[in-house]
Amino acid sequence: MLKCKFFLQGQKLYFTFVRNFCLWAVPTCFLYFMSFFRSALLGGWLLLASVMQAQAGSGATPVEQSALYGTEEVTFPNAIDKLQLAGTLTVPQGAGPFPAVVLISDMGAQNRDGSVRGYQPLRLLAEHLSEQGIAVLRFDDRGVGKSEGDNSATTTLDRVKDVQAAMLYLRTRPEIAAARVGVIGHGEGGNVGLLAAAQPLPPAFVVTLAASGQVGRDLLANQQAAQRMVASADTSQTLGKRRMLAQQALEQQVASMRASGANAAQVETAVAKYQLNQKTEAQNALTKALAREQAMLEIVRQNPDNAQVQAILANMMRQDNAELDPSQARTLAARRTTTWYRSYLSFDPQQYLSNVKCPVLLMQGLDDEEVAPTNLALLEKGLKANRTVTVQKFEGVNHVFQAPETHWPLVDNVRQPIFSYIALSAIREWVRQR
């Protein structure tokens, strides 16, 4: 009887333990499983809702709620320039303090999500990092969404002050580890982050996504020349898709030759000749486009009269493209005489890189047509005194860090763009180590 009593008590304690363990473990494991499951599919179907939602309207899109992080709409002051900036703060659930990052958008008037044709890279990056234990603040550029200011009059140096204000705000939050506040910048935003790191009260670390190592006028000339090269094509097509279409056209030509009786040697010779001609034609066209863009940039640099410059540029643009409407030409010309544009022509990243002492992660997609991968070498050279620089390159990834097009999910037989999960994982793991 005594043994039976002890056995029953033991069974009761065992089942009580199992019940309590399950009450704790099942929800906890479920949350971690969901985090892993969402992360594994972040580049896929679970993000299609946000993509489709972005297509419905502009401005700051409400952030999808998650059991793994909290979302807060915030405002913070830039006390130096006396304006308010607005953004979204996502903070992981649980006990802090957490490491944190400020996201910095690329050039141009960008909202907090970095929205481009329904694709929201900054939002996707913020959600992923916050699900993985990192707080994220992303904000509307000046004059965009709920932020005050005039975007066209905002220079790169002004943007540095906005980022400093954002970091200062994060350091006041009790759930944020003040010593672990860093920045992640896309395009020009990467240069803004590096410049902030060269100032007093720098970020704890900097991650750049396709930052430039060139003087501003050289970068802009190359970007605008590249745009000329694809002007007659569908500009929504990525470099990867254009390569795929070109390869399909070549394969059809080869199949046609073989059907006509051509042997292997004849086909190989024809393919080599075709590829050489294509390369030569592309290089000649790029050289011509680059010379034209450099001439237009010099007109802007040498002439302070905006009205006169706009008239000259609009005329040149219509000479290059007879189908361009006069009002469209004037609008495009006006963009090249803004305060930002004029100041960016002389912006030189090399002037401050030697003062960057914090850890830096330089990231670049090798299919980037806006900032050539050769910029990585220029940035590395400027940062040679910094012993904590990491460089990562990604095959098939473009300027907005989309995954290769073959990885995009299909929706109604149309592929939808996604952020490269390999790049997301690399950012996450590097930031966790800071």
Automatic annotation (TrEMBL):
Pfam families reported in the protein's UniProt record = Peptidase_S15
**Region forming the signal peptide:** none
Q: Which GO terms describe its molecular function?
A: carboxylic ester hydrolase activity
| Keyword Acyltransferase appears in the UniProt entry | no
Which keywords has UniProt assigned to this entry? Answer: Hydrolase, Membrane, Transmembrane, Transmembrane helix
Q: Does the keyword NAD apply?
A: no
Family matches, as Gene3D superfamilies: alpha/beta hydrolase
Q: Name all Xaa-Pro dipeptidyl-peptidase-like domain ranges.
A: 84-381
Q: Which InterPro entries match?
A: AB_hydrolase_Est10, AB_hydrolase_fold, Xaa-Pro-like_dom
Residue spans crossing the bilayer:
21-48
Q: Which PANTHER family match?
A: ESTERASE ESTD
State the name under which the record lists this protein: Alpha/beta fold hydrolase
